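User: These chains co-purify. Model them together.
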Amino acid sequence: MKRQDKKSNCAINYALETIGDPWSLLIIRDMVNFGKKTYGEFLASDERIGTSVLAHKLTELEHQEIIRKQPGAIDKRKAEYYLTKKGINFVPLLNELAVWGTTYDEHTAANKTAIAKYQADRQGVIDRTKRVLREYGTVLQNFDYIYANK
Amino acid sequence: MKRQDKKSNCAINYALETIGDPWSLLIIRDMVNFGKKTYGEFLASDERIGTSVLAHKLTELEHQEIIRKQPGAIDKRKAEYYLTKKGINFVPLLNELAVWGTTYDEHTAANKTAIAKYQADRQGVIDRTKRVLREYGTVLQNFDYIYANK
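Assistant: Joint model of the two components:
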């Protein structure tokens, strides 16, 4: 995004303009919560993103340095996507979306115990989640550590 | 939004679908941070929302019970909008947008001291902000209390 395209100097607007539309955050959610890292895995998510939208979003997120692309560990032709530090810094925002959504969506599939623990210890959960993401790229299999009682 | 329109049972997706597009959060920001409460005040914001989009968004937010409309205190024909509890619960999300935006937007007009204090005491700032919003509808003139040192 060129500077002159920005509508204001408000940091909230800047973040919203960077995110653009919900798909970006859903892709980041797929990486953080579900350990997804390939085009095919993102395509298979419940929200049924279209192929061309997904391709465009991945390019955009890479361009914004929120994710980085690298050759697949097993099949080099199959690209894998990982969150950068800038992407990992969306974790608190994702968590707050989950809190709000869980509060008002009676049909949610969210883990209400985890949400409650987050609300009781935001800082601790954020710190531990970021540490896990830096090391493993996903929170999968590290729930016990992240949502540990203090 | 009808249930069958929802794309998944993910709480994050639910929140994103409810928000719809950035304008909703910018209107909530205008109420929280700048004490705006009338159509004319929202229209005057830097991001230059269009008149028909604004009218549509206000109706939508009212329908979702995120804001409520009431006759103006001085001129009854001039409607005023206030956040409901459901709307006030977007505060942590707004704060995290501000944190992310301030981190990556070098031209931000955000109050970096306030952002730093929030990051050092998320829970306290959230609690105090909600208390102030329930009482006054905006954080204006209550910054010292909200960002007080513990």
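The beta strands of chain B are 67-70, 80-83.
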